[in-house]
Amino acid sequence: MHDALLRYVAGEQQAAIQMTFMNWAANMRASMQAREAGEREAHESQRWQTYLEETARTHDSELEVVRDSAAAARVHAKGATEAMLRRWLGGDVRGLQASVVAEWKSLMQSLKKSARNKKCSQRLCVAFH
Fold it and tell me: Are 98 and 84 in contact, with CB atoms under 8 Å apart?
């Protein structure tokens, strides 16, 4: 209807030019909207991918903390059991001396491990930034 009315009012050639321009403008708007939708989709996809990666890192670190605490609890229970057995097997004085030496060695090993972990964490933080 619009085409016929335009042809009648403006003439055949002018109507063809104007309709071509209107169709081109409509196609440009549609292509710009499609491109913007694609860009929004890509941005949203990247945002969710980043979120998933951060969540995975957080879960991994939390799991590592739980594993470390469980391992520490097992080591502590084992050490307490060994100390009691040493006292019982070697008499109180000798068993207590052996227990103190064993606990001191265990403490030194855990302090060394803690220092290594701290240095490693510091290096990673410096390397990351």
Answer: no
Does residue 110 fall inside a structural domain?
yes
Q: Judge whether 3 and 19 are in contact, CB under 8 Å.
A: yes
And the tokens for 1? Answer: 């209807």
The more confidently predicted of residues 88 and 125 is 125
Is residue 18 in some structural domain? yes
Q: Which pTM was predicted?
A: 0.41
Domain total in the chain: 2
pLDDT averaged over the chain? 83
Q: C-alpha 78: how far from its chain's center?
A: 35
Alpha carbon distance 50, 45 (integer Å) = 9
**How far, in Å, CA of 98 to CA of 96, rounded?**
5
CA distance 129 to 127: 6
Range of the domain at 27: 1-56
**Residue 93 is assigned to a structural domain of this protein:** yes
